Amino acid sequence: MIKFIVAKNYDELSKKAAGIIKSVVVLNNDAVLGLATGSSPIGTYKELINAYKNNEVSFKNCISVNLDEYKGLDGENDQSYRYFMNDNLFNHIDIDKNNTFVPNGLNDATEECKAYDNLIDSFGGVDLQLLGLGLNGHIGFNEPADSFSMGTQEVALTESTIEANKRFFEKVEDVPKFAYTMGIGTIMTAKKVVLIASGAAKSSIVKQAFFGAVTPNVPASILQMHPDTTVILDEESATEILELI
Ligand code: F6R
Questions:
Q1: How many CA atoms lie within 13 A of 224 on its CB side?
Q2: Pocket of ligand 1, candidates 40, 198, 205, 206: which has the most ligand atoms within 8 Å of its Cβ, to mutate?
Q3: 11, 22, 34, 51: which has the fewest C-beta neighbours closer than 10 Å?
Q4: pTM above 0.85, yes or no
Q5: 156 three-class SS
Q6: 136 assigned to active site
Q7: pLDDT per residue over 142-187, tens digit each?
């Protein structure tokens, strides 16, 4: 069963998401945090940085595993997800960088994906997975498909995702066409999932994903089967489901 929280705006959404992450880390100092990139979690990460600076929480013993990385970009590239995580979170909190993991976009796909799954297994899985929601319902870079993916794999990004992500690049041609992503199977084994989505553009996919059929055509719909998922929306992304919750 999915729990829904409708926040007034992006700031409040970010505070709520950070509050859940903080409480997990306070209760379990060495929590394994599954993290996301993109626009949605930036506010949440700011809140976590503030909480750390105010001595409300320490990430010293935490481990983090990110959802995905563009194929072919190295961690020094300012468009890579490793760079994003360092810049938006890791450089500003006390997590040990050696305990932060993002798939390595330069490594061979088969080897990297297998190694990433083994790594997550060796930690006993993810305690809390933070997710954004793609306009086509993707989570991680698990794009609409005929079946749900299991483990980490190389994926071809869809036109819609490339289009949505071009805002971060100088030219659309610069957006990588492939990525490595944690699989849906792994996401589903996370003990707790927190998905955040804001803005009117997401309102239709929010309804499809959480009130439509569970189908690999809308990858996030599988979360309807997850035992502990909280979806945090703002008023704009929640417009189409307000009467349903
Ligand atoms: C990012 C990721 C993606 C994004 C999604 C939403 O690591 O895995 O699934 O969460 O594309 O992106 P934003 O938040 O930019 O709308």
A1: 16
A2: 40
A3: 11
A4: yes
A5: strand
A6: yes
A7: 999 999 999 999 999 989 889 988 988 888 998 999 999 999 999 9
